[in-house]
Amino acid sequence: MAHVAVCVTAPSAAEADAIGRALVEARLAASVNIVPQVSSLYRWEGALREAGEAMLWAKTRADLVAPLTAKVKALHSYACPCVIALPIAGGNEDYLAWIDAETLPAPADTDGSDG
Prior knowledge:
Low-confidence stretches: 109-115
Largest sheet: 4 strands, antiparallel
Radius of gyration: 16 Å
CATH architecture: 2-Layer Sandwich
Strand content: 35-45%
Mean pLDDT: 93
Helix content: 25-40%
Distance between the termini: 19 Å
CATH class: Alpha Beta
Number of helices: 3
Strand order of the largest sheet: 2-3-1-4
Number of strands: 4
Shape: elongated
């Protein structure tokens, strides 16, 4: 299975924690790391902005990115939250298998074939 690390920024560590907990509880991510303070520079509504934010990294499967993104958007206070998925090219195979075991089951074969 393909695995990804999903980066999400939030206006506070508390909001990042709430989002991260919801993702793990829903089994959309096996693990979330929260970096409580990052400094962000970005353009929004035509102006250069600077803000302190929290960042979370969720480790999951690539096939769960769409429902994970929907969950983040439903919980997030930003109108356009940062949610980006980066492929995991390799790593500890035991850890990657753990991600599979701790997230929602992969969708069943839905093409109608018997095997």
